[in-house]
Design goal:
434 Repressor (Amino-terminal Domain), 5 helices, about 60% helix, Lambda_DNA-bd_dom_sf
Length: about 100
């Protein structure tokens, strides 16, 4: 399976597509989702991840996409970001039989 190059943070989808389509402000969306406005703002700006709880709230609120799809989007974003950071080489250990 090929991974998307530089996938967007799922909060970007909410900010750029969902909220404008619904005609909602961050404050209004946070109230409807039952979460703190600052929490939602951090997600929308890519400063916080979509949690399992938020994914379930989004699924119910939007009547789809599924919580799983929100979490897959977050995982794809997190994995790509992690792959961009330099990492030390792992030490390979051999176990005697």
């Amino acid at each position: 399976m090929t991974r998307m190059h530089n996938p967007p943070h799922p909060g970007e989808t909410l900010r750029e597509d969902v909220l404008p389509a619904l005609g909602l402000t961050v404050t209004q969306a946070a109230q409807e989702l039952g979460i703190n406005r600052v929490t939602l703002s951090r997600v929308l700006n890519g400063k916080a991840a979509i949690s399992v709880d938020l994914a379930l709230r989004l699924e119910a609120w939007l009547d789809g996409p599924s919580a799983e799809s929100w979490l897959k989007g977050q995982l794809a974003y997190d994995l790509w970001q992690a792959e961009q950071r330099p990492r030390p080489s792992p030490v390979i250990r051999h176990v005697a039989a």
